[in-house]
Write a structure and sequence with these properties.
mainly beta, seven-stranded antiparallel β-sheet, about 40% strand, ten-stranded mixed β-sheet
């Protein structure tokens, strides 16, 4: 895969001159998904080119209408095929970087097939095809005793949700395969359910196994049941038989339910972890170096010599005021301002119980007692004693959770968002959305916790 991508990048200049402003890169090998889970079909523009103002369509070759449409900067669900409504999404944060990969949720068997990634702007049109294979991993088998058959008992082993068709085998108490088993397969929503019945005599009783395996998926599941001599005709005590059957059914059902629930939870946690790591890696890729602008620092604030730390001291300093300095709020701005792009930095806040971080507009009022909120040009969150707050008008409290020791601030200028993260746990705290930034924005710091520093971390995200 990497060899192919490198080759494409090396030939990019030739391709641009021959074919237009960009090309679409998709993997050569088919994507494989398990029915009921999610899958991401990868597609990106080479060289990386923002697709925010382009028309992006994903199509399935067997359908007459697209399965996902993005144009004029937003999704168009009305143009989407009804079978995929509510089941697809693009990664909006990645579109400005030319990544138009599609997530299909709750994949079905009939989703298998060829998909086409199509991107169009005013001067160019490209499309590339990918294959999706959908497999069914199936449930663990369970065994039921359905009654008597001649001088033996009848057992049935069942499992559902497979694709392709699995193999099923019975092993008797003596360790030999029971070849007289009758197996049936039937389809349900494109997946295969399997059912195998066998008659067990006293000679083959004991601990019996039902084994179901898929060579394609490299999966093998086993269900075990123990048949006592007391269950066979002529020596059956009916009350005991009924109790035993009920206990076996209840025990098998409980085991099956617990296994299915645990497997599903494990898969969900693995998927969530993968998504978090992917998003976090992308955010940290926009880390910038931030220093403090001493000309903006309130006279009560002390800025360290390296301009990376600030604290409140209750000692008023007679400092020259060039018009940039805050004289009401105990604030200081970063030296670097931003008028475009994405930027990420982290601040160490451990031990400080009164702080606020975020971004502020260049025009933010610095001399009066106006409230610090988006309406006045400040997008911040902070801590006061044991609570975390979003500084809006009026203020709102963040949901209860661990107090972060290090806070990440992520500015996406074009999309109008400012996001905050607990950088220690990589968890999201809050995002300001729906803004249309028109002026330069600066990193913002406020503190009134005496002698407790706020420290800008250097290279912290890059080391994650």
């Amino acid at each position: 895969m990497r060899v192919i991508l490198c080759t494409l990048l090396l030939l990019n200049g030739i391709l641009i001159s021959l074919q237009g402003d960009f090309i679409l890169f998709v993997p050569d090998e088919p994507f494989v998904a398990i029915a009921g889970e999610d899958v991401v079909l990868e597609c990106e523009l080479i060289p990386p080119t923002s697709a925010s103002n382009m028309s992006v369509q994903w199509l399935k070759s067997s359908l007459s209408s697209p399965i996902h449409v993005y144009r004029h900067g937003q999704d168009d669900p009305l143009a989407q095929h009804q079978d995929f409504r509510g089941r697809t999404e693009l990664f909006k944060d990645e579109i400005p970087e030319g990544i138009v990969s599609l997530r299909i949720k709750n994949v079905r068997r009939d989703d298998e097939g060829q998909y086409i990634c199509s991107v169009e702007d005013r001067t160019d049109f490209k499309q590339s095809a990918v294959e999706l294979r959908v497999l069914g991993s199936g449930s663990k088998p369970w065994i039921q005793m359905t009654g008597y058959h001649g001088v033996g008992v009848q057992l049935v082993c069942k499992s559902s949700g497979w694709y392709p068709e699995p193999e099923i085998q019975w092993i008797g108490g003596d360790g030999n395969a029971l070849t007289e088993a009758q197996t049936k397969y039937h389809r349900d929503s494109g997946l295969v359910n399997v059912e195998s019945s066998v008659g067990v005599t006293r000679q083959s009783s004991g601990k019996l196994k039902c084994i179901i395996r898929s060579e394609v998926l490299k999966i093998e599941h086993t269900a075990i049941i123990t048949i006592s001599d007391d269950l066979f005709p002529a020596v059956v005590q009916w009350a005991l038989l009924l109790v035993t059957i009920c206990v076996l059914i209840a025990a098998n059902s409980t085991v099956i339910y617990w296994n299915v629930k645990q497997n599903r939870r494990i898969k969900e946690l693995e998927l969530q972890k993968s998504i978090v790591e992917s998003v976090w890696k992308r955010i940290c890729g926009h880390e910038v170096s931030v220093t403090l602008d001493v000309e903006t620092a309130h006279p009560w604030l002390e800025v360290s010599e390296d301009r990376k730390s600030v604290r409140w001291t209750e000692t008023w300093r007679n400092l020259p005021d060039t018009g940039k300095r805050f004289t009401y709020w105990a604030c200081v701005l970063g030296s670097e301002g931003f008028t475009s792009g994405r930027h990420y930095w982290e601040v160490e806040v451990t031990g400080n119980q009164s702080w606020s971080l975020g971004v502020a507009a260049e025009s933010v009022k610095r001399k009066g007692g106006v409230g610090l909120s988006p309406e006045t040009g400040c997008w911040t969150i902070g801590r006061f004693n044991d609570g975390m707050w979003v500084y809006t008008s009026p203020e709102s409290r963040l949901p209860a959770g661990p107090i972060p020791g290090r806070v990440g601030v992520y500015l996406s200028y074009e999309s109008g968002t400012v996001s905050f993260y607990n950088a220690e746990t990589k968890s999201h705290l809050h995002t300001f959305t729906g803004n249309k930034f028109t002026e330069k924005l600066y990193p913002f710091f406020w503190t009134v916790n005496e002698n407790e520093w706020l420290r800008i971390c250097s290279g912290s995200a890059a080391g994650l």
